[in-house]
Amino acid sequence: MKQAAAKNNRRSKNFDHGKMHELSLEIEAKHGNQARRIVAQARARVPLRVSQNEIEKRAQEAVTFARDNALKTEAVADMRTVRTDAFRRNLGLTNLATITAELQHRQESGEFKPINRPNHQPATTTDRMVTMEKENIQTMLNGKENRPPMVEAERVNEVVTAIAKSQRRTLNTKQKSAIEQILSSRDQIIGLQGGAGTGKTTALSVLREAAEKEGYQVRGFAPSARAAQQLGESGIQTETIQMFLRRRKEPVTSSRLVVLDEASLASTKHIHKLIRLLEPDDKLVLVGDVRQHQAVEAGSPFQQLQEHGMTTAALTEIVRQPDEVQKQIVENLAVRNTPEAVAALVSRGKVIEIADERERFEAIAQDYAKNPTSTLVISPANRERAELNLLIHRELQREGIVSRNDQQTTVYVARPDMTGPERTFANSYRPLDDIIRYNSASDKLKVKAGDHARVIDTDHETNRITVRFPNGRKLTYNPTRLSGVSVYYEAERAFAEGDRLKIRAPFRAKRIANGELGTITKIEPDQIRLAMDSGREVTVALREFRHLDYGYAVTSYSGQGLTFDRVLVNADTQESARLLNSRTAYVAISRARYDALIYTNSTQNLSAALNREIEKATALGAIQEDERERKQDREQVIKEPPAPQQQPQQQPLPFDHNLDQRPTYPAQTQAATFATEIPIEIARARYEPAISTESTQNLQEALDRGVNHATPLDATQDDAHEVKKDRDKLSQDSLAPQQQRAQTPTHPDPAPTKAAELEIEGPELDLGGLIL
Fold first, then answer.
1. How far apart (Å, rounded) are the C-alpha atoms in residues 437 and 454?
2. What is the Cα–Cα distance from 226 to 248, expressed in whole angstroms?
3. Residue 334 near residue 303, CB atoms below 8 Å
């Protein structure tokens, strides 16, 4: 009966070939006629004769790119990632053997340091990363107990008490002790470990005034513009650490107290640069929380310095949550007692299970609309954040809180895959789709900071891109010469009066920082009037600035540092550990003063998902772990004679095709192959696809052939038919002798990687131009 029903419901496969051909041409045109351009370029290109020197130069270039890209966000990288990045960087301009030889040379020279940790794939770090970590630690140790204190120990209590009284602040015991410890310390570099909601701003305000009264110039930095603004609430003159490091030097007229807030989000490279700029009489205070999110870039220097002996004052008394039960939940999350915290939330009715994602998002939107002025929504993945923002916008319209008169607006959305090294690589850019924002000026190229241009062409062989500015001017240049950029694509948003908006890039002309929030008071086709949370009102001309988005839901990375009365957390237990873990739980729940609710797909699996631990590796830590493992292996060999070992099988390379053997398609290949397989191969080649064929004469005609396409229902039904045939065959095979079956090896498929893991939204960091 089921077979009969399937047959009756099966859709016809008789499509109009002419219409299918027109559809194919339309799709091809939409994607820039890629296949036709590739064929035309291949026909026009004469056989390329490349000298051995050029091949070796391109291999060196490829390996350098791979090193920088793989180790941009992690201090320790999977060696497979390094190889893959190297192979794809200059595909077609060098060869596999030369790249492999260059990698081997870099390893032998010590530039790459191999790491083989237990339960990990072969990995690597670099000599540069090891050097930076060692110098950070050594500078901290060299500055211990040999600098004059800002305030002598005998009078520090009196000074702190007097300043707190003059500021009309009441300090708890932990705050007062931490301030006194920092002021009386004889170390040049000292840490302030402050848990979420422990009153860091209050403590820093008293610290700042005490240092200024002792003749110190107090400067503050943070990894994001919003964090810098919050640090400024303590009265400290602040800016982002990236802006300060770009200037390199500034006039120093007196001893300085340098305060780096949200230090857990600072990378090894940034801490290294900051430490090197310290004068002998300067003091550096690193303020952060090792339990909250770690740096987007490589390393975790704040935690590493603490582990290697940095004197660290501590703020442990929570002042944000007045409710004792809610405070205890946050304290449990702070000390990694996640199961007990989740159990308390469940017992209080603060965990709501809705298995269906759409229904769960709608419930969150309805809950948000009950009290929108003091509620924050946190969702780990970027995709979920975007969907929640739109649903909340529509729910607020239904409730009459936001106008129903939408204004369609084109906005710029950051490409999350464009790391610093990728921005120097021409083939990383997508012609006609990508918009470049120039974060720094270039007199030679006549580009001003804040300018925008659209990418219209790329050239892999010369590594050059061509852009067009709004005034029509075209510019062709090598992106390695102007890498201080951010890359975006266009998207549509429906904004209305009453909507909450988030600024997604610095708007210096209006003195608006990246990450600021505001509410639309008036909207027109060409401009938006915003009442900023800071109290200012600004008018944004859309022809000048399109870095806007809804400001209702944020990722936990973006939420770090925020405080709201109510927090609604979306926790899908099927998300990867990279997105949903103990750090996510701690940051999200601790944002709420009074009430935190978790919406989840599974209450049963929630505790385990939020209890997962993730730690960014350090180069020195990985090397030490590798050495411990080697020592254990040596000791084991001494105790036990080695057993005979089988010759290991050669592992496949971590990509789909041998780079020296591109697929070849005969000119007589049937239409279905050209209509499906070749476009798929072209799509899979991220940078420069190529087609090898026995004959180019009829290649264009072959690519133009139409082919019938089955619907998803057809494919499902056909698959079911094939599965039944396979089962019948397996039943027959099961009668074969046992020893014959045992001779057939099995190769289980690797676990798939969820796409959402690549969509993590970091804090609004301007990492040399990369704004996340």
1. 9
2. 22
3. no
Regarding predicted confidence, which is higher, 673 or 138?
138
- Token representation of residue 100: 């492999």
Instruction: Name the DSSP letter for residue 179.
Output: H
CA angle 506, 507, 513 (to 5 degrees): 50
pLDDT digits (tens, 9 = 90+) for 273-304: 999 999 999 999 999 999 999 999 999 999 99
Distance separating alpha carbons of residues 385 and 389, to the nearest angstrom: 6
Output b/e per residue, 171-180; b: 16+ Cβ within 10 A: bbebbbbbbb
Cα atoms in the Cβ-side hemisphere of radius 13 Å centred on 239: 9
Question: Residue 429 carries which DSSP code?
Answer: S
Cα–Cα distance, 548 to 207 (Å, whole number):
36
The CATH superfamily assigned to 131-315 is: P-loop containing nucleotide triphosphate hydrolases (3.40.50.300)
Q: Which residues, 6+ apart, have CB-to-CB distance to 432 below 8 Å?
A: 32, 454, 455, 456
CA distances from residue 576 to 212, 218, 471, 571, 655 in whole angstroms, order as listed = 47, 41, 45, 11, 23
> What would the two tokens of residue 78 be?
């999977």
Rounded to whole angstroms, the Cα distance separating 488 from 219 reads 33
Confidence bin at 662 (pLDDT 50/70/90):
very low
3-state helix, strand, coil in the chain (%, to 5): 40, 20, 40
- Give, in words, the CATH class of 421-489: mainly beta
Q: For residue 719, what is the enclosing H or E element?
A: helix 712-733
Strands 464-468 and 474-477: antiparallel
Q: Is the dihedral of CA 177, 178, 184, 187 positive or negative?
A: positive
Distance from C-alpha of 517 to C-alpha of 230, rounded to nearest angstrom: 13
Tokens representing 488 are 């975006």
Over residues 671-694, mean pLDDT: 43
What are the distances in angstroms from CA 190 to CA 125, 133, 136, 243? 28, 17, 13, 23
Between CA 268 and CA 75 the distance in angstroms is 9
The CATH H-level (homologous superfamily) assignment of domain 337-406+496-611 is P-loop containing nucleotide triphosphate hydrolases (3.40.50.300)
**pLDDT tens track for 11-29:** 444 556 666 666 666 666 5
* DSSP reduced 3-state for 214: coil
Number of neighbours of residue 679 by Cβ within 10 angstroms? 18
Q: Identify whether the C-beta of residue 410 lies closer than 8 Å to the C-beta of residue 526.
A: no
- Separation between Cα atoms, residue 505 and residue 243, nearest integer Å: 14
Q: Please say if the pLDDT value at position 154 is more than 70.
A: yes
Tokens at residue 686, please? 């991220």
Give the alpha-carbon dihedral of 79, 80, 82, 86, to 10 degrees. Answer: 140
CA torsion 530→532→533→534, rounded to 10°? -160
Any idea which residue has 């690549």 for tokens? 758
Q: Are strands 766-767 and 692-693 parallel, antiparallel or unpaired?
A: unpaired
Q: Is the CB of residue 391 less than 8 Å from the CB of residue 365?
A: yes
Query: What whole-number distance in Å separates Cα of residue 523 and Cα of residue 585?
Result: 37
What number of residues does the chain have? Answer: 772
Q: What percent of the chain has pLDDT over 90?
A: 61
Return all residues near 288 (Cβ < 8 A) that are at least 6 apart. 191, 192, 193, 194, 261, 262, 263, 264, 265, 266, 302
| Encoded tokens for 289 | 């929380």
Residue pair 336/292 in contact (Cβ under 8 Å)? The answer is: no
